[in-house]
């Protein structure tokens, strides 16, 4: 993966990164909040020896003190002094507890020792630091006075006494939050990359073309408005989604140029991939270019075209097939010019048999003769056989693929289903492509290049000869 791909990946998975950062920051804040504040009081001790008068004796004495401070630092952290300090102050703690709160550090090449004491109470921190230092002065005197002598070889003075600390040194809020941010960023990126690696949904053009063995003929952006109003009124509409449907209309010219498809079945692998919405708008885009278009609701199980277009659903495809009504009675004019609709009709008990009947084939042939384009909405391929039956009798099939939702195995099975009935798969269409994301990117690139020639499938193979489609106005 190169840098550009990483940037693209992070842009498309920014929510994962942002949530991980927020969680890490929240964890850091909770840790900070739950940490008991500790105050630090410090003293400084000075070590000296009783030196002689000469320069060399003074030097010797100084060296002696420097050697001593290292041992003194250890004694300051020792159990004996801790016990003596606790006794002196009457503290309610064990020596080990106090020892863990003491830091003593000898400054290199000096005769100074810094003593730090941590305690939840600022006053107690000061008292311990001072008492400990005073006790240490006594302790050194006892230790360093040779038996029988009256003066010690070495002496410690509390050069700087402790005062009450104003602010706690623990928790270190800024450091904790900074660390939380860094950990959050690193984890977020790792998680985004891991999710991308484990993600087997399809959103890249190349991936889709490999799976279907055909070209990508359209990429319909996600447009929330379509949930309220599925049909786009193409008049003066230059929105991204209207342009995407116009581009799809143009690309249909490139498909099977020898035998321009006029009866198209739109299907998908799984439910809710945008078949019905796309059916309506592909038809409207074709109607905008001056074509006389009919859409047929071939989804006899969960029909939606009549709802999406505010039409009557009781009379339609199934009622014509059963002989209850004639085709002309069942066809309904939509509110859009150039668009006629054959809704599904009453839901029949045997949709697959009905669709496979000779009557269904004749009905589609009749519509083909009457209209420039017959666009058939259908069911998902992996759920029932209806779509495959319709697809087998069509000039061409377009496979809707919901970007970032449909899994590669599902597309593989759907394509195999179409192949098994010899249906002519003309191309794939990405639907509900998010505004930013790899699919959106791949399509903008597609728009600038010529579309990949679809692979020959089924009975309608393309030979590459140009044969402009009649009735097309763009
Ligand atoms: N381009 C789009 N942008 C936003 N939402 C969309 C788009 N296309 C379809 N939808 C929404 O997605 C949902 C499913 O769409 P639609 O009914 O067209 O899918 P379908 O494949 O026909 O479903 P089914 O398998 O149930 O027949 C609907 O709520 C619809 O409004
Ligand atoms: Mg549908």
UniProtKB/TrEMBL annotation:
Compositional bias segments (type: Polar residues): 461-474
Which reaction does this enzyme catalyse, per its entry? L-tyrosyl-[protein] + ATP = O-phospho-L-tyrosyl-[protein] + ADP + H(+)
Q: Give the GO cellular component terms, alphabetically.
A: plasma membrane
Q: Name one Pfam family in it.
A: Wzz
* Record's subcellular location: Cell inner membrane
Q: State its Enzyme Commission number(s).
A: 2.7.10.2
The kind of enzyme this is, by top-level EC class, is transferase
Q: Which domain of life is it from?
A: Bacteria
Q: Which residues form the AAA domain?
A: 274-405
Transmembrane stretches, by residue range? 12-34, 177-194
Question: Per its record, what are the GO molecular function terms?
Answer: ATP binding; identical protein binding; non-membrane spanning protein tyrosine kinase activity
Annotated region Disordered: the residues are 446-474
What topology does the record note for this protein and the membrane? Multi-pass membrane protein
Q: Where is each Polysaccharide chain length determinant N-terminal domain found?
A: 2-89
User: Any idea which UniProt keywords this protein has?
Assistant: ATP-binding, Cell inner membrane, Cell membrane, Kinase, Membrane, Nucleotide-binding, Transferase, Transmembrane, Transmembrane helix, Tyrosine-protein kinase
Q: Which family does it belong to?
A: Belongs to the CpsD/CapB family. Belongs to the CpsC/CapA family.
Q: What is this protein called?
A: non-specific protein-tyrosine kinase
| Organism (species) | Mycolicibacterium diernhoferi
What taxonomic ancestry is recorded?
Answer: Bacteria, Bacillati, Actinomycetota, Actinomycetes, Mycobacteriales
């Amino acid at each position: 993966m190169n840098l550009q791909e990483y940037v693209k990946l992070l842009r498309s998975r920014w929510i994962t990164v942002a949530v991980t950062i927020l969680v890490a920051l929240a964890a850091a804040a909770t840790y900070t909040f739950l940490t008991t504040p500790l105050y630090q009081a410090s003293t400084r001790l000075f070590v000296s020896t009783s030196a002689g008068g000469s320069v060399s004796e003074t030097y010797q004495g100084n060296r002696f003190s420097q050697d001593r401070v290292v041992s003194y630092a250890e004694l300051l952290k020792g159990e004996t002094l801790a016990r003596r300090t606790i006794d002196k102050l009457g503290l309610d703690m064990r020596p080990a507890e106090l020892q863990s709160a003491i830091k003593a550090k000898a400054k290199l090449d000096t005769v100074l020792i810094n003593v730090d004491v941590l305690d939840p109470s600022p006053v107690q921190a000061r008292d311990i630091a001072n008492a400990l230092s005073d006790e240490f002065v006594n302790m050194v005197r006892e230790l360093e006075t040779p038996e029988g002598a009256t003066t010690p070889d070495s002496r410690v003075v509390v050069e700087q006494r402790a005062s009450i600390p104003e602010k706690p040194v623990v928790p270190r809020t800024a450091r904790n939050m900074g660390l939380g941010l860094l950990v959050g960023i690193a984890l977020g990126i790792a998680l985004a990359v891991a999710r991308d690696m484990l993600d087997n949904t399809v959103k890249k053009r190349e991936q889709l073309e490999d799976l279907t063995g055909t070209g990508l003929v359209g990429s319909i952006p996600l447009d929330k408005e379509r949930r309220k109003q599925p049909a786009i009124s193409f008049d003066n509409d230059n929105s991204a989604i209207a342009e995407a449907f116009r581009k799809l209309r143009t690309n249909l010219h490139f498909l099977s140029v020898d035998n321009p498809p006029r009866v198209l079945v739109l299907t998908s692998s799984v439910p809710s991939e945008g078949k019905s919405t796309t059916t309506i708008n592909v038809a409207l885009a074709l109607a905008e270019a001056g074509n006389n278009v009919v859409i047929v609701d071939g989804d006899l199980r969960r029909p939606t075209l009549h709802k999406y277009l505010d039409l009557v659903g009781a009379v339609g495809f199934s009622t014509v097939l059963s002989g209850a009504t004639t085709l002309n009675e069942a066809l309904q004019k939509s509110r859009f010019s150039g668009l006629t609709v054959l809704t599904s009709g009453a839901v029949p008990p045997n949709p697959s048999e009905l669709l496979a009947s000779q009557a269904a084939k004749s009905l589609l042939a009749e519509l083909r003769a009457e209209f420039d384009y017959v666009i058939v909405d259908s069911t998902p391929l992996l759920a029932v056989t209806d779509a495959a039956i319709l697809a087998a009798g069509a000039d061409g099939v377009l496979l809707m693929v919901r970007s970032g939702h449909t899994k590669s195995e599902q597309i593989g099975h759907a394509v195999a289903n179409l192949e098994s009935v010899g249906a002519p798969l003309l191309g794939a269409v990405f639907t509900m492509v998010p505004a930013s994301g790899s699919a959106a990117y791949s399509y903008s690139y597609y728009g600038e290049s010529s579309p990949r020639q679809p692979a020959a499938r089924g009975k309608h193979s393309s030979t590459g000869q140009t044969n402009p489609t009649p009735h097309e106005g763009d």
